[in-house]
Amino acid sequence: MGTCSSKDVKENPIILPVTQNDKKQEFTPLTPDLNKNFDIHKTEKIHLQTYAQCFFKAKGALPEVNEEPFTEKIIFYEGQNAREICSGENIGITCRKGLKEGVNQDNFVVVSKPPYMFAAVFDGHGVNGHFVSDLAGKILPEVLLADIEMSLDPVFSIRDCFRKTQETIVKKCKELEVDCSLSGCTATSILLAHKKMYISHLGDSRAILAKRYQDKLVPVPLTNDHKASDPIEKSRILRHGGHVEKTNGTELERVFLPVRCPQGLSITRAFGDTAFTQIGVISDPFIKECKISQSDEFIVICSDGVWEFMSNYEVASAIEKNRQNAPNDIAKFSWDRWIENTDDVVDDITVVIIPL
């Protein structure tokens, strides 16, 4: 992967076109009318060197109504060839509603603004988590790609832009009378520039690098979850007066406010969640800087709807087996694992694959 270092311390909505594959007729458990196997229309492969030289943007829409389980999120496109770039063997995206109450709270954004390319996944939580994740997808790339200091010190700029994004989210929520005290979102992003990648994240959405090694595609983790099970993260929460407890007979530790509140938080860093900032839940990201090598083939960013029951190796294997349909295959595998391992509950599922 090369050298890595961590710095911790207007347009109309378009639904991605699909065709059903009759040879693989499988159905979603509990939603038998929904065919989970799709083949994206084949498009000409566009290399990173080409699509990184033009402006385009793809972002998930803010849901206005409850969708059916496994429904694909509407994607808004901007820029010439944006739709072709974000399909087939090029950039792969899928964002699926889970099997649960409420709307799809996941969101994503992919933006190319030469010489930079940016992609991120956001996983909302709380009553207004979908609103916070939508704001994050709009504000973070806008602030980051407009930063005139980016070329001088990308790591400093990224950290500062996360701070500005949190401030703007809180301000926007107040203006629109949206309560984000107990609602927020994760953020896992990748910035590509000058043969380097900068990975920054909050929470438990993860990114991996899929690289070629001895004729196989192998995964390299790029992020570590921000959870209360991490001793350093837990220590900060406790120092600020928060409580960390296991709930519902599980081993999962959650963060609670000192004043009893039934809603705990499973992560220790996030956008939004203003009630938890007083007890050490922060929006300061972990940042990793890596040189891009010739063996590096893909960046994969997914919400925990994927990582809860799929391993890094399984995700890399899905890309190796069927690059053309990898995002949907990963979403299908994840859905099936949730059904197998839970009482008919499935989290929202988002997959973004960036070829290098």
Automatic annotation (TrEMBL):
Location relative to the cell: Membrane
Annotated SUPFAM superfamilies: PP2C-like (SSF81606)
TM spans (from-to): none
PROSITE patterns: PPM_1 (PS01032), PPM_2 (PS51746)
Pfam families, per database record: PP2C
PPM-type phosphatase domain boundaries: 90-356
One function term, GO molecular function aspect: metal ion binding
InterPro entries assigned: PP2C, PP2C_BS, PPM-type-like_dom_sf, PPM-type_phosphatase-like_dom
Keywords assigned: Hydrolase, Membrane, Metal-binding, Protein phosphatase
Topology term for the membrane: Peripheral membrane protein
Top-level taxonomic group: Eukaryota
GO cellular component labels: membrane
PANTHER family in UniProt: PROTEIN PHOSPHATASE
Family, per entry: Belongs to the PP2C family.
Protein name: PPM-type phosphatase domain-containing protein
Organism: Stentor coeruleus
Lineage: Eukaryota, Sar, Alveolata, Ciliophora, Postciliodesmatophora
